[in-house]
Write a structure and sequence with these properties.
It is a single chain. With 254 residues, this protein is an alpha/beta fold. The protein has a single domain, classed as Aldolase class I (TIM Barrel). The strands form 2 sheets. An 8-stranded parallel β-sheet has the order 9-8-7-6-5-4-3-10. It has a two-stranded antiparallel ribbon with strand order 1-2. Strand 6, helix 4 and strand 7 form a beta-alpha-beta unit. Helix 6 packs parallel to helix 7. It starts with a strand and ends with a helix. It binds 1,3,4-trihydroxy-5-OXO-cyclohexanecarboxylic acid (DQA). The site of 1,3,4-trihydroxy-5-OXO-cyclohexanecarboxylic acid has 15 residues, from strand 4 and strand 7. InterPro entries: 3-dehydroquinate_DH_AS, Aldolase_TIM, DHquinase_I, Type-I_3-dehydroquinase.
């Protein structure tokens, strides 16, 4: 895992995993309150889960909200994520709207990273990677399985595909149905990080069984972990303060 991804002052891929906290407000007012609260927490990065936003299909309102959120977060790096319902998100939109939404966000200058789902048309993924890079925005290429944990080879192959498509941060989140599944995710992470990745990767096993995977990224090779503020965006996210304490302890002994 050689290359480091720098977003504002945050170095992803160096030292302890960085902490990202999602914003899940539905209205502009809730989002502004959430952003103000997040500013008081010890975190590294904020993710706006725009699929929760009531006006997500109105590009003008999304842009207005982005400007407000950015001004409250000041220098904290911001990830822009529309998570589709088929991958555990709140809504489904057409591919054309998905591409437009992400392209618009990348062009605003208000965000640092976009999250693009791997399971889209390759051509669409490439268009978004190019648009983002043109505006100095980094790209997470992500995949989520909320039902199960695919075999190790499949997890590694999806992460490699995300890297091949130009994702700066390949990411996968999977659901364990056994402790063996958690080991599968950790082993896939280790193999990807040690053998194939030339950039930081992000992995997690979700829900209670998978919590350990959100804490041990520095050892196994995941560079970023999601923690919760008031409301989690996925099962297994633990409160940010606890997360920081544990990551710091693990880092100091690594
Ligand atoms: O992809 C991810 C990871 C995540 O699903 C998690 O399990 O922490 C949470 C989402 O908000 C984020 O977009």
């Amino acid at each position: 895992m050689a290359k480091i991804v720098k977003v504002k002052d945050v170095l992803i891929g160096e030292g302890a995993p960085k902490i990202c906290v999602p914003m899940v407000g539905e209205t502009l007012e809730q989002l502004m309150e959430e952003a103000a609260h997040l500013r008081t927490l010890d975190l590294d990065i904020v993710e706006w889960r725009v699929d929760f936003f009531e006006h997500v299909e109105d590009l003008g309102k999304v842009k207005e909200a982005l400007i407000e959120i950015r001004s409250i977060l000041a220098n904290i790096p911001l990830v822009f994520t529309f998570r589709s319902a088929r991958e555990g998100g709140e809504k489904e939109i057409s591919t054309a709207s998905y591409v437009e939404l992400n392209r618009m966000a990348a062009e605003t200058g208000q965000i640092d990273i976009i999250d693009v789902e791997l399971f889209n048309d390759e051509a669409d993924v490439k268009v978004l990677v190019e648009a983002a890079h043109k505006h100095n925005v980094s790209v997470i290429i992500s995949n989520h399985d909320f039902q199960k944990t695919p075999p190790k080879e499949e997890i590694v192959s999806r992460l490699r595909k995300a890297q091949e498509l130009g994702g700066d941060l390949p990411k996968i989140a999977v659901m364990p149905t056994s402790t063996a599944d958690v080991l599968t995710l950790l082993d896939a992470t280790r193999t990807m990080a040690e053998e194939y990745a030339d950039r930081p990767i992000i992995t997690m096993s979700m829900a209670g069984k998978g919590v350990v995977s959100r804490l041990t990224g520095e050892l196994f090779g995941s560079a970023l972990t999601f923690g919760a503020a008031k409301k989690a965006s996925a099962p297994g996210q633990i409160p940010v303060t606890e997360l920081r304490e544990i990551l710091t302890v693990l880092h100091s002994h690594s």
